[in-house]
Amino acid sequence: MDPYAVSHSQATSVRGEQAARVLKNTYMLLGLSLMVATGAAWFAMVNQISYINPLMTILVYFGLLFATNALRNSAWGILAVFGLTGWLGFTTGPIINMYAQVQGGMDIVTLALGGTAGIFVVMSAIALVTRKDFSFLTNFIMTGILVAFLASLAGLFFQIPALHLAVSAAFVLLSSLLILWQTSAIIHGGETNYIMATVTLFVSLYNLFMSLLSILSLGDD
């Protein structure tokens, strides 16, 4: 018997067990994070919070993202994740309240939620079933997110419907690919930290939901 073959088999088994553990912990923390975000959104809606400054939203988001990254290897990192996801949920509350005041607005919210859930299931299933390594998408996704983010900042100053639609469509595509990429990274051992994996997946879901809301709203005009 080849000792190398046995050693290689054992190493593969260990990596597979680690990947399964990271995936399980990621999905558990993601589920809890969605509950925290939903609770924060509900709190904002019940208290009729109607406006949150976009600049403050971005600054607090990046502050919490930095804290989460710094604490990713400790139990405090889980609390940082809840802080980050809770903040994003809280800032979503006023937006949902705005839709609730418009005829057919909640139908759009429901469609966006359904679309977000559907895309997440499909992209995750592709990664889990095919077991393909999608790391080749890394540069495309990161460059695309940077460009789309800068374009979204420009959209805050220039109210151009076509730009708004293009940015939203880009985030739908990039967020979908990011779910595929992150799930694949967990499976193949490229991501071993479930805290950071959870943040990536949650932010992808958040961007998907918000982008679908924008697209469906424009289509409803």
Automatic annotation (TrEMBL):
It is found in: Cell membrane. It comes from the Bacteria. Pfam families: Bax1-I. The keyword DNA repair does not apply. One of its GO terms (cellular component) is plasma membrane. Keywords: Cell membrane, Membrane, Transmembrane, Transmembrane helix. Its main location: membrane. Signal peptide: none annotated. InterPro entries: Bax_inhibitor_1-related. It is a multi-pass membrane protein. The chain crosses the membrane at residues 27-45, 51-68, 75-96, 108-129, 136-157, 163-181, 193-216. Belongs to the BI1 family. This is Carrier/transport protein. It comes from Alcanivorax hongdengensis A-11-3.
